[in-house]
Design brief:
Shape: flat
Helix content: 40-55%
Distance between the termini: 6 Å
Order of helices and strands: EHHHHHHEHEHEE
Strand content: 5-15%
Largest sheet: 5 strands, mixed
Number of helices: 8
Length: 233
């Protein structure tokens, strides 16, 4: 069986046949965190409003596709910015999708995108849901990731799912193991609410044993407070 990680870029993969990307190059390291967060929040709010617009949702309108992508990527970027960290990947994709969303008109709307190609389904990429400190409540991007999994499971032949919870090194090892299990359970419940059969979902707790960013004991680190969704074909 092939084990694959899911990334929220699944929406981007499905849009790979669309027009060439909009340039999205900013020097994020030179930007003030507060202004960058405000700008990203504005883009997220605009994308959210557009995806809630019934006229756009029901029409053959490309803006809905790019608004959905902007909502996902800007949400991920905001998760980092709230912890005063910059993630150039999600920031760039947020800017790119927002630009496409605002430039696309109904007259230019393409037909619905095809099912994700096999190479997109099989690509090894990290699919992460981040958590606030000492919290088992999934972050703002979790709903979009769960939607992506449910919508593409059949096309990608994803048969079973392993939801793996992690914690940072702040707190005792035993407490962090329990916390990472609660995080995994929360994400598994979210997947189940999207129609994924609960019998196909396993949860695993790793605690602080496998950090994404190595730190000293007692250090709080956003990127280590996470859940990864693994799929089997």
């Amino acid at each position: 069986m092939t084990r694959t990680k899911i990334m929220v870029v699944g929406t981007s993969a499905m849009l790979a046949l669309a027009a060439s990307p909009v340039a999205a190059q900013d020097n994020w390291q030179d930007r003030d965190i507060s202004s960058l967060r405000g700008e990203t929040q504005q883009r997220y709010d605009a994308a959210l409003a557009l995806t809630d617009d019934a006229a756009v949702v029901e029409a053959n309108d490309a803006r809905f596709i790019w608004a959905s992508e902007a909502k996902v990527q800007c949400g991920i970027a905001l998760g980092y910015l709230k912890s005063r960290a910059r993630d150039p990947v999600s920031l760039g994709k947020c800017r790119d999708a927002y630009a496409r969303m605002t430039q696309t008109t109904r007259a230019m709307a393409p037909p619905p995108p095809p099912p994700p190609p096999a190479e997109a389904c099989n690509t090894e990429l990290p699919g992460l849901i981040f958590f606030e400190f000492d919290s088992a409540v999934p972050g703002t991007e979790a709903s979009q990731i769960a939607d992506y999994v449910a919508q593409n499971a059949a096309a990608c032949s994803w048969r079973s799912f392993n939801v793996v919870g992690h914690a940072d090194r702040s707190g005792s090892s035993a407490y962090n193991m329990d916390l990472s299990q609660r995080r995994a359970d929360a994400v598994a419940s979210l997947l189940g609410s999207r129609g994924i059969a609960t019998g196909s979902i396993d949860t695993t707790a790793r605690g602080e044993e496998n950090p994404r960013v190595p730190t000293d004991d007692g250090v709080r680190e956003l990127q280590n407070r996470r859940v990864e969704i693994l799929v089997n074909q």
